[in-house]
Each structure stands twice: as structure tokens, then as C-alpha cells.
From TrEMBL:
Any one Gene Ontology BP term: riboflavin biosynthetic process
InterPro entries listed in its UniProt record: APOBEC/CMP_deaminase_Zn-bd (IPR016192), CMP_dCMP_dom (IPR002125), Cytidine_deaminase-like (IPR016193), DHFR-like_dom_sf (IPR024072), Eubact_RibD (IPR004794)
Lineage: Eukaryota, Viridiplantae, Streptophyta, Embryophyta, Tracheophyta
Highest taxon, organism lineage: Eukaryota
Protein name per Swiss-Prot or TrEMBL: Riboflavin biosynthesis protein PYRD, chloroplastic
Organism: Sphenostylis stenocarpa
Keywords: Hydrolase, Metal-binding, Zinc
Zinc is among the record's keywords: yes
Amino acid sequence: FGVLCAASNEENDDGFYMRRCVELARKAVGYTSPNPLVGCVIVKDGIVVGEGFHPKAGQPHAEVFALRDAGDLAHSATAYVSLEPCNHFGRTPPCTEALIKAKVSKVVVGMVDPNPIVAFKGVERLRDAGIEVVVGVEEELCKSLNEPYIHRMLTGKPFLPLRYSLSVNGNFLDLLGNGATDCGGYYSRLLQEYDAVVISSSFFTEKLKVPASQEPGANQPIRIVIHKDPSSLNQIPPGMNDFTGKMIIFTDNKAETAPEVAQQGIETVALDHINLDVILDYCNSQGLCSVLLDIRGSFGEFEELVKEGIKKNYINKFITEILPVWNRRSEPDPLQTLKSLEQGVKLLNLKSKASEQSVVIEGYFKC
Ligand code: AOF
Ligand code: ZN
């Protein structure tokens, strides 16, 4: 009985330290792409002697910071890492070698790295060096931490959830004056998690503030503006780009861009036809792992993108925010396009979150 108790305590401890790794990793939310979020904790005799996380692509990995923090105490210690340690020379040297050199005796890994250059090779290298390796502690949590990174590694496309708001009577809210004006703190926190957000050009034409993450120092995703109205590209009011992030306009308007647009640091890409393939390829080329398709404003601008995204299986996550307002039916309904697709679309792995401002439901769509 005593042995069983000891084993289950050890398992609980593994979970505890892995959750701490995830907590540490999350300090860099929004800043690591194309790299993953990774946290590492070094534990010796039940005491945490080192902690670290990966702050930004190009900078040292989580293990390196944690080992530095632990110094000589890493000797014979256990290293917890939310992602399999790398075993390759990328922008930084292999973490496996750093762990071996530090003489840790055990490594507990949250999940195998889906990067084909790394997958299982890190674990193998550590085992070959005589280090005990446990894989798959708090695996689901570690996977949810890096949903965009994993998605991009496996599909070659950025992760592309679709977000929209509904009134309590089930109508779409454009949030540009149609019933509700503020999405509250939830929306601001959501934005921080994304590398880019696709928004409607009505933020320009209605002279509204472009949505920004509110907390000081928070990640400001790149604003990708869909601009289908040929008459208004030259009427972008000054001060639109008043947040610290980058803005890029995708337009099928061939008219020459007004100098004021470029003066605001806004890049413009003119296309024959705005489509998701071009937008996602652009994001991919910039190393962006996550793009939020944020349906607000001029719904018509999104309809084709939504249709394309669902048909091509680019959109697999839905984020629905129900706000405490009652409103008239909005026309056109931006997701009416879904009705023309196959019946019986079902969302899986639902999660919901309720606050005083809203109820948020997230779910996955599998074709
Ligand atoms: C780890 N710990 O903290 C991270 C890892 O170009 P590099 O050198 O930064 O390598 C990037 C790859 O390394 C990335 O695609 C992923 O496979 C892994 N990231 N690995 O052991 C970390 N950030
Ligand atoms: Zn590494």
C-alpha cells in the first residue's frame, strides 16, 4: 500500500510540475511564432531549483533558461519540459545536449514535438545517454498550449479559428453599432493569443478604433484588413494605425493607394480576388502560426472567405460569444453560407466560459 501511495504521489507531482511548465510557457503568449510556447522546471529532492520559458524565436529554448537558473543543482535533478527537447541545430543548439551536459538524471516530457526534425529524436537521444525519460504527462494541456504551432506543423497552414458574436436571441452582432458596442475583457485577452487577426474594412469607413489588446505590453496581432469597397480605400482616415502593431490591407481594389495610407505605415496588397489561400500563404511566409477570422462589421466582406475556409478545411474551430443584448436580425447573416454546405455540421470538444459580460462557446468542426 505504501508503495502505491508513493507512486501516485510521484504522478501527482509530475502533473504539478508540468502544469507549472505550461504556466511559465504562457508568459510568452503571442511572441514565439513560428516557434512553440515551451516551459521547463528543474526539480531536485522535491524542490524547484530552476525555471525557464522560451521567450521568442531566435532566443534560447526553455531548457537553457531553466538550466542556467539551476546551475550545479541540475546535477541528478529531474527536468520537466512541456515539449520534447530538441535534438537539432536550428537558430539555437540542441537542448538534449544541454540536459546531458548538466547531468540531469530524468526528463519528464509533456508531449512529443510534432516538428519532423525533432519528433522522437530528442527522447531517443536522452535515453541513449542513459537518462530516464517519461513522455505524456499532462499531454492534453500541453497540446492545448500549442494548438496553433501543432496545427501549422501538421497542415502547413496557420491555425484559423472563426469568431463571431451573437445576441441572446441568436442574431449576429456586428459590434459596429448594431446593439452592442464592447466585447469586454474576454475579447482583448483573446486577441493577445493570435499572431494575426482578419478584420473588416468597416473599421475604416465607420472611423472606429481598430480592436487592440488592452493590457500594457500585450501582444498586438497583425491586423489584416479585408477591403472590398473600391470607393473607400483612399478615404482611410488618419490615426487608424494608432496601436503598436502592424497593419496590412488586402484589397481587390486596383485604384492607387492614397499616400496617407502608406504614411500611416499600412502596407497594401492588391489582388485580383481576395481569398484565404493568399492570406494564409502570406501569414505562413511571415512565420505566423495563428490567424483569427474575426467576423465583425461588414459581413458581406467575409462571406466568401468563410465559404472557402470551410470547404477547404482551413477553419476548424468556432468561437461563439453570446452577449447580453437583444437585437434585430442582422442582414446578411455572415454564416448563411454554412446553410448551403452539408447538413448536420456538428461541433466537437466543446468548451464554455461564462462571465458577467458574455458566454463563450468554443468547439471544433471536423469534416
Ligand atoms: C525545445 N525547447 O523552448 C523550443 C523548442 O530555431 P530554433 O533553434 O529556435 O528551433 C526551433 C524548433 O525547436 C521549433 O520548431 C521546435 O521544434 C523546437 N522548439 N524546443 O526543446 C523550446 N522552443
Ligand atoms: Zn531546444
